[in-house]
Amino acid sequence: MTANRALQSSFSVGRRDLARTATGRWKTGESPSVVSLRQAESEGNPKVHLDGISLSYRTNDGKSLLALDNIQLKVHPGEFLCIVGPSGCGKSTLLHLIAGLQQPTSGRILMDNKPVTAPGTDRILIFQELGLFPWLKVGENVEFGMKMKGVPKAERQERVDYYLRLVHLSQFRDSYTHQLSGGMRQRVALARALATEPDVLLMDEPFAALDAQTRDLLHDELERLWAETGRTIIFVTHNVREAIRLGDRVALISFRPGKVKREYHVDLPRPRQLEDVSVALCAREILDDLREEINKSLAEQYGDKELQA
Ligand code: ADP
Ligand code: MG
Q1: What element of type H or E holds 133?
Q2: How many A from CA of 215 to the centre of ligand 1?
Q3: d(CA 169, CA 196)
Q4: What is the mean pLDDT of residues 255-276?
Q5: How far is the CA of 111 from the centre of ligand 2 (A)?
Q6: Dist. CA 219 → ligand 2 center (Å)
């Protein structure tokens, strides 16, 4: 972590409209006095610890491709961490490793100090293709993960009620997913994930296919859900502004092999908006760093070495 620490940046501190309570949750409209993130980070154990993670893939021509190289990252309980990086830098791979869907070639992934060796109900992955079942009603989709987890029926019904209310979809409980808009389907997927009450939500570019207005609404919703439920979120995006809109911290992954090139602390007041000047200014700083990595990825894609200069 020492090398990464040296590369940390911090954006200016301002008033927060969402304040963290003693229980570690957030409330809207409270006094601006909040736990400083860096102070909070230095306390206690990380929720997720990526300890020297490397991963090599075997390519079709039998060679080995080093996708991730010695990733060191600690994610703190209740933190909203965003991961950005050019296409192909290993962002999805990183989430799959945390989800326990893949094993690293070397290094360890710890969740609450215990090694992750398989998928578990304490972590849940949400991606762009939501994986909702079209033959089930909205309520049944939300119930599904809990059924798999063996939650008793009465409790399942209670949680379906609660989480559908939380994403403002109670009146669509008996609709089928094809009767909903893209944004509403995303909210069903969120309710389904939250209903299994995981500690950590892993989100892989979940809003990339949505129109701008729907995405803005979902940013608000996600921030509110995070505040109300106190979950830890690891959110992958290639959109730097989105990362700053949502994250307490942004980790930039370099292009092949994927390393943590730099970490940024975002101490801007919440709630933020994508079009805030402060968000744009922070984004510009990260974009300068990211552009170098995008050029490397383009150079590899198009075979143009000059782009790497
Ligand atoms: P990102 O999500 O940042 O776009 P990925 O994690 O999907 O990147 O992929 C990282 C790199 O690993 C890419 O070069 C990709 O081609 C390669 N890769 C991903 N999955 C496999 C696989 N199953 N077999 C071989 N190479 C893979
Ligand atoms: Mg990806």
Answers
A1: none
A2: 26
A3: 17
A4: 92
A5: 22
A6: 19
Q: What is the pLDDT of residues 188-203, one digit of tens each?
A: 988 888 888 899 999 9
Structure confidence by residue, pLDDT tens digits, 37-60:
344 444 579 999 999 999 999 988
Q: In testing the pocket of ligand 1, which one of 89, 101, 260 has its CB within 8 Å of the most ligand atoms?
A: 89
pLDDT value at residue 10:
53
Q: Is 92 in the pocket of ligand 1 (CB under 6 A)?
A: yes
Nearest alpha carbon, ligand 1 atom 16:
88
Q: Which of 63, 65, 298 to mutate to test the pocket of ligand 1 (most atoms within 8 A of CB)?
A: 65
- Residue matched to tokens 């710890």: 110
If one counts every other C-beta atom within 10 angstroms of the C-beta of residue 306, the result is 7
Sequence-separated (6 or more) residues with CB below 8 Å from residue 129: none
With the most atoms of ligand 1 within 8 angstroms of its CB, the residue from 92, 128, 298 to mutate is 92
Q: Look up tokens 């979950």; give the residue.
A: 231
| Of 23-32, 107-116, 130-139, minimum mean pLDDT range | 23-32
Cα–Cα dist 32/154, whole Å: 40
Does 88 or 17 have the greater pLDDT score?
88
Structure token digits, residue 285: 């700083």
| Bridge partners for 126 per DSSP | 203
Tens-digit pLDDT profile for residues 141-191: 999 989 888 899 999 999 999 989 888 899 999 999 999 988 888 889 888
Map tokens 């000059």 to a residue: 306
- Give me the domains of the chain, ranges plus CATH numbers: 2-122+200-308 (3.40.50.300), 135-197 (no CATH)
